[in-house]
């Protein structure tokens, strides 16, 4: 094993037919449209940024409080506050061409038809290279279980969206299930070009002073380092179940953390909460992945994918 | 880097940082977002209390783990600060009369504001209240600036017995009122000023996630059409009509007339 | 609301027909037989200690490494190392009468018959006031899913055990399911006298230096403060689903943490991982719960149970 | 309380604590379990390096978060220690000859042991090895006790080139051999001593959970019947026949003959 010069390592990855300049993606909901972060950091360090999920109708979102620090994590229940697709297309979409990296559009919906409708209208926007389906948002009160809790409803959403869009489609799965493998397989069979996981883990806190739930929404989603072991396992298991690329996320703060996901089988990683602590986290993680490849004498970061996972089902680069 | 650390009252701390860029740029009601070693997933937002030379200070209570850790950090510890963040108060014309109304740690934005108002020749009255004397902090520093500070406590253990609002009745209305403190106080102050048609600016607080305007975790309801709102269209399913504004990014200062307290 | 003197507060609780002197239980697997902790702490501060789960056959357990520190937590995969019931009865059971508090026996098994057999032989041992069924241990490789992932198999185990024992039976549930409520209800319908939750959350870590899973067992169970929001939510939901008492656990380190569980609906709390940091945690938490009742002018800790949970299904003391 | 803190080599630290009870009671190969502020769920186990007067020291590398935090804690910081924990080495009769074999930070138990052996008039030879010179620590302190220390490195950057085991060939066998260091070295040392029928005691290391014998997280395989084993009967389903022993509680010191390396 010879150590290769950093410049000779290929840092890129692929999500379906879209190539990203590096492995590191900003997770949905943590980067807005990139405009605010532009003040303190460089969006272009990211291989792609995922937009906050967009719904068909405008949504006010949940009441307050919406967030609470938790041990090594953050509890949130934003409730998909957003402008709705109409307003998004009119006011936000035109700014997408200014974003200094690739964009992944995220879609959330409350029926299969809504997903298909919003996704179709996102298809072909400037800079947008893929569409992620937030079938797993745990914060919004849906009739019955959320889509991603069930293989059939996950597949229904993916199938309906695939019929309407040309861009690669990413199904974003939830860890709040007994077994993530059948759901990942259902997404793949329905035509998903990639899956991403994990979305937030369901949790809550009680305000002991006022003897009531802390969050206005009662329960919320736990994110940050606390959930990393849960996320690594979900990626590990999904990587044994499907051949499509996986975007791994949940608690990544450092290159070492990201490497866990890549070795488990992730073809890209996403970072959410850690942006709040360290606005420069993307560059740090992207560089560390290149270094990890170099140290192992590999010519690409992609060659690391799945290399700790003997039952990795995806394609190996080496 | 931490330059000083003082327990100003039981559980209340004043901590100084060497932060030349922030000290040079800061305006009243702005805050810093502090990253701390340890397993905290998000930064701690604290209002900037004083700024002199290369140094800023924060004045805070030991609330939970992050404030406790900061309170017990040694002088010389390196600290990662982002700031100054947030908007600031409107400064009226020379000769105007301003009233500052603060509850407890709501005093924090008013050292910088008081200094600024004095420099702008604004006649400034400061009313500082708390439940009880032990929770009154900051008065000495405001007086040292040359401000006239009236104290009041709910239980009469310091200053006049009664709320800061009672104190407002005792004098003729000001040209502008500034408020910061607990929600109940702010709501009452706000409603009173709006009813009296008196300009009033409020520095709001909410639990923060990102401190940078990206997570939408820190919102307060504002009147639809307020310039600090999201500008998103009304949600069809919502019966109540208001908009949300991010305290961390669009605030922390709001015109009382823009705030919606019933949401 | 008047503050009452601490001495006038009733600190006790009930699990089925058994009364415990306070709300605080040592979680299974974290306290052994109490003999080792005796060196550094006072077992009697606990209202009860739960024994490490006992199986029918002796078990060597998993290979090494078995543990790894995680952000605000601990990953473990012990694999139910243990002597088996025969050896336990001969060598450990006689020491139970020396334990300075009540004992909850824990049973793990790989078939319904095993659970029933081991539980029956635990019934009536000295100091033992209840039998907990570890139907949820996530570390042991079972054919297919673990019992607690499924309402029917949970109910099968509870029913079989209830037919053989006189002591109160506690079904210990896992958070690694899409919805804990039907499983809690199944345990209740099958005759469980109480449920306890949560067991460890499934997770894993990759050793990036050696490019392989850190734990010999690949995956393990995450415990400690990291999982507390997940645990509080599980208790909150179970408390709306069943009327039997709930023992809440997962990441409790302080009185405030324990109070979250009690207000959510737990009639007792258990502490595992926090014993490893603070051997005196039991007394601290038990005292804090009494203080919390006193501050609220209540005459018993039990009066706090479920008071933040409007849909609490259990019996309220007040 | 932290009494001193010294970077003894890049990434290697020696930190002292005022701990009179532990300093008075400690024997070689014992350790302390350190609770640290911050979001760590379990204590950090570190071997006790020196003990003099009221003070003990630990000698460690910055491995991960807990050791990094300790390395950067200020003098005067209060630290919660449990210890001394674990068993200790056997001390041979006066006049016996002992060989100590340490790899890298495996030197830690041998300051206390060396001191004890000197006091017991045991002729003591110390062989200290590492991959490279930068990883060799502790030799000066052992020499200061009056011990004769031979160094070796795999790459020849300090002392003899070669492994600590090669060094063993150069002299007649001892009455007892003590070993501590990386697993590969310990396995080789152990096998060699067992084959040569030479008494050998090994201080083992595993990742710890509770550090108190209750979680069974830190086990090593030992021969069935070894007194440090669990004593549980053989599991029917298991084809391999060995028992597990808890390093934290039943160790850390094992007779080489009791250890099973192939499990
Ligand atoms: C813009 C801004 C400026 C601010 N400026 C100041 C300032 O100048 N001075 C100041 O003192 N504060 C200030 N704050 C408030 C401060 O940031 C918060 O109090 C912060 O949460 C404290 O962090 P912590 O980690 O210490 O406590 P946290 O752990 O975040 O806890 C916050 C509070 O919630 C309580 N809590 C947490 N969990 C629970 C639970 N389950 N049940 C009941 N209670 C719980 C804690 O006990 C504590 O009272 C400001 C906040 C904002 C947004
Ligand atoms: C009885 C005993 C005595 C000891 N005495 C000493 C001593 O005297 N001196 C000494 O230096 N050490 C000693 N140790 C070792 C020390 O306790 C451990 O190295 C401990 O884990 C360090 O804690 P940490 O939080 O700093 O690192 P941890 O976070 O626990 O990490 C430990 C190691 O694992 C690595 N790691 C963690 N997660 C991953 C991952 N996912 N992939 C790859 N690597 C990972 C870290 O980088 C690091 O190398 C002793 C251990 C025991 C059991
Ligand atoms: C404040 C916040 C808002 C989020 N909003 C969304 C969202 O709108 N859509 C979505 O798919 N995921 C959302 N997520 C989940 C993240 O994209 C990500 O899956 C999760 O936070 C785990 O990654 P992390 O631990 O790096 O934050 C949100 C997370 C946070 C913290
Ligand atoms: C090392 C270890 C071993 C455990 N073994 C068992 C076990 O044998 N049976 C069981 O029901 N739970 C077992 N548990 C789970 C605990 O009883 C408890 O449910 C879990 O640790 C959550 O509580 P905590 O966060 O306070 O540790 C174990 C936990 C740990 C950390
Ligand atoms: S705290 Fe994230 S938007 Fe304000
Ligand atoms: S670390 Fe828990 S038994 Fe040894």
Structure commentary:
The complex is a heterotetramer, with 2 copies of chain A (318 residues) and 2 copies of chain B (263 residues). Chain A is an alpha/beta fold. Chain A has 8 helices and 16 strands. Chain A has an 8-stranded parallel beta barrel, surrounded by 6 helices. Chain A has a 4-stranded antiparallel sheet with strand order 5-6-14-11, with no helix packed on it. A two-stranded antiparallel sheet of chain A has the order 1-2. In chain A, α2 (112-122) packs parallel to α3 (151-162) and α3 (151-162) runs parallel beside α4. The model of chain A is unreliable at 138-142 (pLDDT under 50). Chain B has 263 residues and is an alpha/beta fold. Chain B folds into 3 domains: 2-85, Translation factors (Elongation Factor Tu (Ef-tu), domain 3, Beta Barrel); 97-201, Nucleotide-binding domain of ferredoxin-NADP reductase (FNR) module (Rossmann fold, 3-Layer(aba) Sandwich); 204-263, no CATH class. Chain B has 6 helices and 16 strands. In chain B, the strands form 4 sheets. In chain B, strands 11-10-9-8-12-13-16 form a 7-stranded mixed sheet, with helices on both faces. In chain B, strands 1-2-6-5 form a 4-stranded antiparallel sheet. Chain B has a 3-stranded antiparallel sheet with strand order 4-3-7. Chain B is globular. The relative contact order of chain B is 0.14. Classes of the chains: A alpha/beta (318), B alpha/beta (263). The interface between A and C is large, with 45 and 45 residues.
Please state the average pLDDT score of chain B. Answer: 94
- The structural domain count of chain A equals 1
State the name of the first-level CATH class of chain A.
Answer: Alpha Beta
Strand order of the largest sheet of chain A: 3-4-7-8-9-10-15-16
Order of helices and strands of chain B: EEHEEEEHEEHEHEEHEHEEEE
What's the helical proportion of residues of chain B?
Answer: 10-25%
Tally of discrete structural domains of chain B: 3
Measured by residues with Cβ under 8 Å of the partner chain's Cβ, the largest interface is: A-C, 45 and 45 residues
CATH architecture of chain A: Alpha-Beta Barrel
Shape of chain A: globular
Fraction of helical residues of chain A: 25-40%
Percent strand of chain B equals 25-35%
What integer is the average pLDDT of chain A? Answer: 92
Instruction: Summarize the main sheet of chain A.
Output: 8 strands, parallel, barrel
Straight-line N-to-C gap of chain B = 41 Å
CATH class of the largest domain in chain B: Alpha Beta
């Amino acid at each position: 094993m010879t150590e290769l010069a950093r410049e000779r390592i290929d840092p890129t990855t692929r999500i379906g037919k879209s190539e990203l300049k590096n492995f590191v993606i900003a997770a949905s909901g943590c980067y807005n449209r990139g405009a605010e972060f532009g003040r303190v950091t460089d969006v272009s360090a990211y291989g792609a940024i995922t937009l906050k999920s967009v719904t068909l109708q405008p949504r006010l979102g949940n009441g307050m409080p919406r967030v609470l620090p938790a041990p090594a994590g953050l509890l949130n229940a934003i409730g998909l506050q957003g402008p709705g697709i109409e307003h998004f297309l009119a006011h936000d979409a035109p700014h997408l061409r200014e974003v200094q990296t690739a964009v992944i559009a995220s879609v959330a919906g409350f029926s299969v038809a809504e997903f298909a409708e919003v996704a179709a209208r996102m298809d072909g926007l400037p800079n947008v290279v893929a569409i992620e389906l937030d079938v797993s948002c745990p914060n919004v009160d849906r009739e019955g279980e959320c889509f991603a809790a069930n293989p059939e409803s996950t597949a229904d959403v993916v199938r309906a969206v695939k019929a309407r869009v040309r861009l690669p489609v990413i199904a974003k799965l939830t860890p709040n299930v007994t077994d993530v493998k059948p759901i990942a397989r259902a997404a793949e069979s329905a035509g998903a070009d990639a899956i991403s996981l994990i979305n937030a883990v369901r949790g809550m806190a009680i305000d002991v002073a006022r003897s009531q739930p802390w969050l206005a929404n009662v329960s919320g989603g736990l994110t940050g380092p606390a959930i990393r072991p849960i996320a690594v396992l979900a990626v590990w298991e999904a990587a044994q179940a499907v051949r499509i690329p996986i975007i791994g996320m949940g608690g990544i703060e450092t290159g070492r953390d990201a490497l866990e996901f890549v070795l488990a089988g992730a073809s890209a990683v996403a970072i959410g909460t850690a942006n709040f602590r360290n606005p420069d986290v993307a560059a740090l993680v992207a560089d560390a992945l290149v270094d990890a490849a170099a140290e192992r004498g590999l010519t690409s970061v992609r060659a690391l994918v799945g290399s700790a996972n003997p039952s990795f089902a995806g394609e190996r680069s080496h | 880097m931490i330059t000083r650390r003082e327990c100003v009252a039981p559980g209340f701390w004043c901590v100084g940082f060497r932060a030349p860029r922030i000290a040079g740029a800061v305006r009243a009601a702005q805050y810093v977002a502090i990253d701390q070693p340890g397993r905290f997933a998000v930064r701690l937002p604290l209002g900037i209390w004083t700024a002199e030379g290369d140094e800023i200070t924060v004045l805070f209570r030991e609330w939970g783990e992050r404030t406790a850790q900061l309170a017990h950090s040694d002088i010389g510890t390196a600290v990662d600060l982002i700031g100054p963040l947030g908007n600031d108060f409107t400064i009226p014309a020379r000769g105007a009369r301003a009233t500052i109304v603060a509850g407890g740690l709501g005093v924090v934005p008013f050292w910088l504001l008081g200094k600024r108002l004095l420099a702008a020749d604004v006649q400034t009255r400061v009313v500082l209240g708390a439940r009880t004397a032990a929770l009154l902090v900051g008065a000495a520093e405001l007086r040292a600036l040359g401000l006239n500070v009236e104290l009041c406590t709910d239980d009469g253990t310091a200053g006049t017995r009664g709320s800061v609002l009672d104190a407002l009745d005792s004098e003729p209305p000001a040209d502008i009122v500034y408020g910061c403190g607990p929600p109940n106080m702010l709501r009452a102050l706000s409603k009173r000023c709006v009813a009296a048609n008196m300009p009033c600016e409020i520095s709001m607080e909410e639990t923060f996630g990102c401190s940078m305007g990206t997570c939408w975790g820190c919102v307060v309801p504002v009147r639809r059409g307020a310039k600090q709102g999201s500008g998103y269209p009304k949600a069809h399913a919502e019966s109540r009509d208001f908009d949300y504004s991010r305290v961390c990014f669009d605030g922390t200062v709001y015109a009382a007339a823009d705030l919606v307290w019933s949401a």
